[in-house]
Write a structure and sequence with these properties.
The chain is an all-beta fold. Helices cover 0% and strands 47% of the residues. The protein has one domain. A hairpin with a 7-residue loop joins strand 2 and strand 3.
């Protein structure tokens, strides 16, 4: 992922088949983990993951689909031009 201070992932999933885990910086000592399951999914385009207040270092976002109905549409990264770590 490009260095930035926030990331938003948009996509689609339905309440009967979406189940995934998103982990920000999985190799760090304290990764941020978010799970979306059928109980809190919506039909149509929605925010699947969002994190802000990040330092401007390079980050890794890992998304693992545990179901059969997940569509990733786009990722929006808030880039701070000229920033250093």
């Amino acid at each position: 992922m490009t260095p930035g201070s926030s990331i938003t992932v948009l996509g689609a999933g339905g309440p009967s088949n979406t189940n995934f885990t998103a982990t920000l910086d999985p190799s760090s000592a304290q990764p941020y983990v978010q799970t979306l399951s059928p109980a809190n999914a919506t039909d149509g385009r929605t925010v699947l993951f969002h994190a802000d207040g990040l330092n401007t270092n390079t980050h890794t976002l890992e998304i693992v689909n545990h179901g059969d109905g997940l569509l990733l549409d786009m990722a929006v990264v808030d880039v701070v031009l000229g920033a250093e770590g």
